[in-house]
Amino acid sequence: MSDALRDINDIDPVGWWPLAPGWWVVAITLVLLLYLIKSNRSALVAWFKRPRAAWRRDARRQLFELLKRLEIADQKTLATELSELVRRIAVARCGRETCAGLSGTEWLEWLTANDPGSFDWNSHGELLQELTYAPPAEQDHRPQFEQMIKATIGWTEASTCSVKTSV
Q: What percent of the chain has pLDDT over 70?
């Protein structure tokens, strides 16, 4: 009976060559990636050095906080915070040289001309300038603040700044 049982032979070891199709895809992708990195090194360095759009997230967060506080906050405080935030967003989007030196009517005209949502800052934005330095107001300007905050949210969502001259 022992002659009927045969000895178990070892299975042949699996060689590493030829590679499976998945490894060919990985190898070719790696070679192409190295080639692209070498050929476009300056573009890659520029991409890593470009400023990140973290200011957009921060600005949107602050604008939504202003919207939440709209009913309970002091209107003078709202005007001050919104005015400062609009200025910071405009400088971040379009550069300090283009808009940081503007004030008064020039600032509102520039905002109106460069707003991606075509919001009329000339008529609505005067509230920001007047209320910031005025005594406590008895009139309720919350609907205008809501419009301005929503228009400013549009500024954060716009991808580029196409600077136009004022109207």
A: 87
